[in-house]
């Protein structure tokens, strides 16, 4: 980590920290006052997105439907498969709360980061004690990618969009598998909402589809 001067904030991003058992203890030992930001999204969508990324690198892997179940006839979800296990947010958060108070963790909604990026970034800036410099004028929605892009209003340089690995088209998944996954995640989602004091409304979002 680079040295941080007074008045500076040093940021570092590694998605796997949240699901790595040793990470909370190690980070706490290094800097117990660290503020943590976790971006979460509907775990069903997250699992399919995870699979889509892997599929792009390893086209020979089995279908999502095959990997998602230990026994499809009995409807037994394979929670040891990382694409599914990562979305059991309550399980991972329990580990972090042994070392960090909830006040030091900000949960950002992956869905709202797409529909209202400025609103979510306002929360991030407030959490970090920064002035709200990044606002609506810094974003525009890229219809091709399906994500907002970042632009500098005072600058004519090209906007920065997410790379080629983001915004891939998801494969079509059997609706019965989606339904079973939603049922599997529901109690964990409810537990996560209770632990964080935030309702991410993933069930509402699914019933709207």
Automatic annotation (TrEMBL):
Belongs to the sulfotransferase 1 family. One of its GO terms (molecular function) is [heparan sulfate]-glucosamine 3-sulfotransferase activity. Its EC number is 2.8.2.-. Keywords: Disulfide bond, Glycoprotein, Transferase. InterPro entries: NST/OST (IPR037359), P-loop_NTPase (IPR027417), Sulfotransferase_dom (IPR000863). It comes from Mycteria americana. 3'-phosphoadenylyl sulfate binds at residues 41, 49, 166-170. Disulfide bonds join 149-161. Pfam families: Sulfotransfer_1. This is Sulfotransferase. Residues 29-186 form the Sulfotransferase domain.
């Amino acid at each position: 980590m680079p040295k941080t001067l007074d008045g500076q904030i040093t940021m570092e991003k590694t998605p796997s920290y949240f699901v790595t058992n040793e990470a909370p203890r190690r980070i706490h030992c290094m800097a117990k006052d660290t503020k943590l930001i976790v971006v979460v999204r509907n775990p069903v969508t997250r699992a399919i997105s995870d699979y889509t990324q892997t599929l792009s690198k390893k086209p020979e892997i089995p279908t999502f439907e095959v990997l998602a179940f230990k026994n499809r006839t009995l409807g037994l979800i394979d929670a040891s498969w990382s694409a599914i296990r990562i979305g059991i947010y309550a399980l991972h958060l329990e580990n972090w709360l042994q070392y960090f108070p909830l006040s030091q963790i900000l949960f950002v909604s992956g869905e709202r980061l797409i529909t209202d990026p400025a609103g979510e970034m306002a929360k991030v800036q407030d959490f970090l004690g920064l002035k709200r410099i990044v606002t609506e004028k810094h974003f525009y929605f890229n219809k091709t990618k399906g994500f907002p892009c970042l632009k500098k209003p005072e600058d004519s340089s090209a906007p920065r969009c997410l790379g080629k690995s983001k915004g891939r088209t998801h494969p079509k998944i059997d609706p019965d598998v989606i339904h079973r996954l939603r049922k599997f995640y529901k109690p964990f989602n409810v537990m996560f909402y209770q632990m964080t004091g935030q309702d991410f409304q993933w069930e509402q979002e699914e019933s709207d589809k």
